[in-house]
Amino acid sequence: MTTDVIDQLVGIQPGDPLDSLRDQRPNARANAQASFDALLHSDELSHVSQRERLAVAYWTVALSKSPTAAFYRDLLAADDAALLSALEAALPGALTDGPYGDYPAGPLSAENVDGLHWQPSPELAAAAGPRLAAALAHTHLLVYRPRDASADALQTLQDAGWSTTGIVTLSQLVAFLSFQLRVVAGLTVLKGELA
């Protein structure tokens, strides 16, 4: 068995009890790694560059306040240390609690919660460029205000130069990382119980 990213993030070694547990769901394990590879080691970079993928990945996990941010931080540092510095400088002003957002008019509207509507600072926008800056703002929306995802939010990305395929890839990346963070958190708890 080769160690996959989830194993690496949790600290699962071959032969560990969690390794045996994960082996009981080989398709889930293989598909999680295949998703990581497709989104972060793709040969198709015409719609979303590697720099953009790594920046959005780091931003997603950093906004989620996950200990896995160090892994994605290192990936981005190897690609663009200046962009990483700009993201780290912007992070304290972007962190909040959530989820926020509004439901359509109806019985769920009673659960509407207003929260931070973050936009990149001029310094971050200059380091990232307008296209990536729009993607970072959209990532913030997906992490903290998913109820507010809308056609207008997608239009903002298109206006910044994102293609439909690029927007789908960005959304898949944020969704995958949200899934990965939950799997890692759950397996970390199990690891503590099995130790």
What percent of residues are in strands?
A: under 5%
Give me the number of helical elements: 10
The arrangement of helices and strands along the chain is HHHHHHHHHH
How does the helix and strand content classify structurally?
mainly alpha
Task: Explain what the structure shows.
This protein is mainly alpha-helical. Helices cover 66% and strands 0% of the residues. It has ten helices and no strands. It has helices spanning 5-10, 17-23, 26-40, 50-63, 69-79, 81-94, 122-128, 130-144, 151-159, 164-194. It is globular. The two termini are 22 Å apart.
Q: What's this model, at a glance?
A:
Helix content is about 65%, strand content about 0%.
Helices and strands in order, then pairings?
Elements: H1 5-10, H2 17-23, H3 26-40, H4 50-63, H5 69-79, H6 81-94, H7 122-128, H8 130-144, H9 151-159, H10 164-194
Helix pairs in contact: 3-10, 4-5, 4-6, 4-8, 4-10, 5-6, 6-7, 7-8, 8-9, 8-10
Kindly list the characteristics that best describe this protein.
single chain
